[in-house]
Design a protein that fits this description.
Blueprint (H helix, E strand, L loop, with lengths): L2 H10 L10 E5 L25 H14 L3 E5 L9 H10 L4 E5 L12 H8 L2 E5 L5 H8 L3 H15 L9 E5 L10 H13 L7 E4 L6 H9 L3 H10 L14 E4 L5 E2 L2 H6 L35 H4 L13
Parallel strand pairs: 1-2, 1-7, 2-3, 3-4, 4-5, 5-6
Antiparallel strand pairs: 7-8
Length: about 325
Amino acid sequence: MNPFETRIRQLTGTGLSTRDVRVLQVNVGLRCNQRCTHCHVKASPRRTELMDRRTMREVVAVARKMRPHLVDITGGAPELNPDLRWLVTALRGDGHPVQVRTNLTVLLEPGMDGMMRFYKRSGVKLVASLPCYLRPEVDNVRGRGVFKRSLEALRRLNALGYGREPGLVLDLVFNPEKDFLPAPQAGLEREYREALGRLGISFNGLLTITNMPAGRFLGQLRRKGRERAYMRLLKSAFNPATLDKLMCLSQIDVGWDGTVYDCDFNLARGLPARLPSGPAGRATIAGYDVDRDARRAVVTGEHCFGCTAGAGSSCGGALQG
């Protein structure tokens, strides 16, 4: 039993269990035009893993039965999957609310002409990564020139109405540059609004996400000999008030190959969900039973302390104000 599971059982007497599925998260691939230092899935331009059309059809079929409150598409850079438009169109055609997590700069890459307008026509909500409102911090995490290109993408999205018009939601995401917890979300959002407002850029909300000890960030911690110190920080900041709000209680995450996880961080750590309807060790969207698999025990690991530290963390931002 891992330390997080032990802590939870000491507090509650049982492990974590799902209630229902409100969010269907879909990781459509690990290819990305950037190679960020904190990426939990180690996305990069060299990755070739992409969800194929057959798996996407299985996702659409499950969504049709499940009727989730939100389909959350992530990556890598989702736009680099050539079938993304097909998936979005199919989901929106069935009436599902859809959001796409974009790194912004991919929207300026060759071959991306019209992607922003496609998002607008489709009524897609955008969640855009911008790990800071200062150039040095962003370029240090994401690469030289990324801050400038990110601002250009934001200006183009604003010009289309994103972050300004009703129904065209544009949220930003903050990740700490290094191994510390995010500042309070509300205060940091005010700082973003002031800094980006001076540049004429608008957005709807800011989501703060703790850097998880997984993927490239975990490798960075180990190279610097900081893994134990970071885990001590997360464990010492454990907040039991976050437990009822953890995202794993109400979502599934579908990996690029169709494997089902309780969250995208479990995907990064190679920990598939335990589906009641499936054979041991085999959890796929093709075999997902909407009725039986919505209620299940959550698979945990030591990295889960990242979601319960301080104000808590999820793909939707902080869990407490």
